[in-house]
Amino acid sequence: MSPRRNRPRATAGPPGQRSESDRYGLEQTESWRGEEWVVRRVGGSAAAKHYRCPGCDQEIPPGVPHVVAWAREGTVDDRRHWHAACWNAKDRRTARVQRSRNAPRH
Questions:
Q1: Strand partners, 32
Q2: Which of 26, 43, 85, 87 has the smallest number of Cβ neighbours within 10 A?
Q3: What global pTM score does this model have?
Q4: Is residue 47 a part of any domain in this protein?
Q5: pLDDT tens per residue, the chain (106 residues)?
Q6: Sequential DSSP letters for the chain
Q7: Is 67 part of any domain?
Q8: How many domains does the chain have?
C-alpha cells in the first residue's frame, strides 16, 4: 500500500497558474429586492485588500473569505464586498445601519 498523498494533485495547465474561477470563485445569480444580482464567493487567499461590508458597516480585513455582489445591470463600480453572514442575512436587516458615536466615518 502506498502512503497517503497530502498535497493536492496538479491540475491541467502551467504550474503556478490558476484559472479565474479558482482564484475568484464561481459566480451565481440571486434575486434580491426584485433585481438580479451576481454573487461571487471569494476565498481567503484571494482577498488581498481591506473592504467595508455594507451589511454591518464593519471592515473586512485581507485574508478573510467573503462575498462580492453586484446588480446584473450594474457596472464594475457597483460591486460590493460583504461578509458571507451579512449577505445571507440581508433580508433580515434594516435599510439603514445605525453607527455608534465612535464608529469611523468612511
A1: 35
A2: 26
A3: 0.63
A4: yes
A5: 666 767 666 555 555 544 444 455 678 888 888 889 999 999 888 888 999 999 888 999 999 999 999 998 888 888 999 999 999 998 887 655 566 666 666 5
A6: -PPPP-SPPPPSSSTT---HHHHH--EEEEEETTEEEEEEEE-TTT--S-EE-TTT--EE-TT--EEEEEETTS-GGG-EEE-HHHHHTGGGS-SSPPPPTTS---
A7: yes
A8: 1
